[in-house]
């Protein structure tokens, strides 16, 4: 077996020198390359890459903007829509019938004017939402439902407002609903059975008053009108000329108290002018002048 001595393991001197020189050259080249790379900021490199990607997108977008501004897209869309509508008509999708449910007070011509559709119109061109909005602008209509029922029917359901009272203002009467909306000022004769309310803010508070009166039906049927006093409370006017002065609060309790007293003593049928209910649990009765005089004159002896 041969022996390896220290001299054999060592590389020749010129070989080591060449290796060191090559390593030095490689290190120098890498340093120069890195320096060149650092001379261009990283953000600029990213910006260049993004720009190359965005350039075609911007070009297409600019063309789209031009087409939009010149109306080219709109014209193309209108032509396509018209062609499609023509196809639906050829397929039998045109209006032949308009069905309306729930119309009692609303004028028929006003309904048709709001719907804006006639026989033979393309049913797919009809817009139910626009028709619904126009119907709900009519005085008598609270809510409306409009549907296209293919192939040829437009269906309308109306929820009309309900008359609540006659509102006297500026010497004239107007019919109002529970929301205080004026329904009409004409042909009011058929609504004479409704309560007449008086006062600028009377429509706003009438629903509450009528609800409380509904709990005392025997008393309610004797009330012909109600006046709003100072924007705070009500005076009731009965058919026999008696005025009932209600409190600002707890109207229901005051009316119940009066109804109980009337059932026991027939207070309202006496020779009185007014009943004041503004004091809790107490009736203050104002008698007529004739009744007061009779009480002051002693009865003649027979």
* Widest sheet, order of strands: 6-5-4-7-8-9-10-11-12
Unreliable spans are: 1-11
Profile the largest sheet: 9 strands, mixed
Class of one domain, according to the CATH hierarchy?
A: Alpha Beta
CATH topology of one domain: Rossmann fold
Helix count equals 10
Helix content: 40-55%
User: Looking at the structure, what is the overall shape?
Assistant: elongated
Mean pLDDT: 81
* Name of the CATH architecture of one domain: 3-Layer(aba) Sandwich
Tell me the total number of β-strands. Answer: 12
Q: Given the helix and strand composition, which structural class is it?
A: alpha/beta
CATH superfamily of one domain: Cell division protein FtsQ/DivIB
Q: How far apart are the termini? A: 175 Å
Helix-strand string: HHHHEHHEEEEEEHHEEEHEEH
Radius of gyration: 46 Å
Strand content: 15-25%
Structure description:
The protein has 302 residues and is an alpha/beta fold. Among the domains are: 90-160, membrane protein fhac (Ubiquitin-like (UB roll), Roll); 163-296, Rossmann fold, CATH 3.40.50. It is 44% helix and 22% strand. It contains ten helices and twelve strands. The chain has helices spanning 6-9, 13-39, 42-69, 72-90, 108-115, 128-135, 202-213, 217-220, 251-265, 289-296; strands at residues 97-101, 141-149, 153-160, 163-169, 172-177, 182-184, 195-198, 223-229, 233-238, 243-245, 272-276, 284-287. The chain has a nine-stranded mixed beta sheet with strand order 6-5-4-7-8-9-10-11-12. Strands 1-3-2 form a three-stranded mixed beta sheet. A hairpin with a 7-residue loop joins strand 11 (272-276) and strand 12. Helix 5 packs antiparallel against helix 6 (128-135). It is elongated, with a radius of gyration of 46 Å. Residues 21-34 have a biased composition (Basic and acidic residues). The chain crosses the membrane at residues 47-68. Belongs to the FtsQ/DivIB family. FtsQ subfamily.
